[in-house]
Amino acid sequence: MRIPVDIHTHQQPQVPGEAIVNCFPETFVPQAEGWYSVGIHPWYITSSVASAVGFVLNNRTMHFEELLRHPRVLAVGEAGLDKLAEAPLTLQMEVFEYQARLAEEVDKPLIIHLVRAVDELLKLKLKIRPVKPWIIHGFRGKAALAEEYLRHGFYLSFGEKYQEEALRIVPPKRLFIETDESTTPVGLLYERAAEIREIPLEELRETIRRNVGEIFFRQ
């Protein structure tokens, strides 16, 4: 079994299983050796929620929860809160909570998109008290914000752009690497992150490999 080294991308990897590919429920078409996350993104809440009663997969209608239970789906998301999105924040919070609670039911981690809504996210985490990991994807904030998230038990995933000091302070067990929408090969992102953290590249690879195994594959 191939363990993905890229936990969040919107592109099909050259090697099947190398990355967790993010999909909308209505576009989820799993490949035999691929890994996926499925969620309702805050940018597309209106259209996604309107069709959330059911999606067609393998010629039969499946409800959102069924999609999340698919064996090739490793995570719920990306779910999120985004104050720049068109959907009202109150609706975004309802949809986020719905997905966060489903993540608990299906026993899978939650991948989070967050823009200018830190307080709202922390309030929801306090309300829901999740057992499954919550992962902030594409983290670009300063070290102080990283520390705040870490205090509340979040994991942080870093893509192509980020504050170097924030990357340095994340404990190894809370760290992930992703490409998101970047076309930069994930291997180059690992090389840069290892250099910034001043550790051997293979040590970083092993750390992320272990984290992915514990968070995404331990049921």
Automatic annotation (TrEMBL):
Q: Does the keyword Zinc apply?
A: no
GO MF annotations in UniProt: hydrolase activity, acting on ester bonds; metal ion binding
Record: residues binding a divalent metal cation 1: 78, 180
Q: Please name the taxonomic classification of the source.
A: Bacteria, Pseudomonadati, Bacteroidota, Bacteroidia, Bacteroidales
For whether the record's keyword set contains Metal-binding, the answer is: yes
Q: Which UniProt keywords apply?
A: Metal-binding
Report the InterPro entries cross-referenced here.
Metal_Hydrolase (IPR032466), TatD-like (IPR001130)
Q: Which Pfam families match?
A: TatD_DNase (PF01026)
Binding-site residues, a divalent metal cation 2: 113, 137
**Name recorded for this polypeptide:** TatD family hydrolase
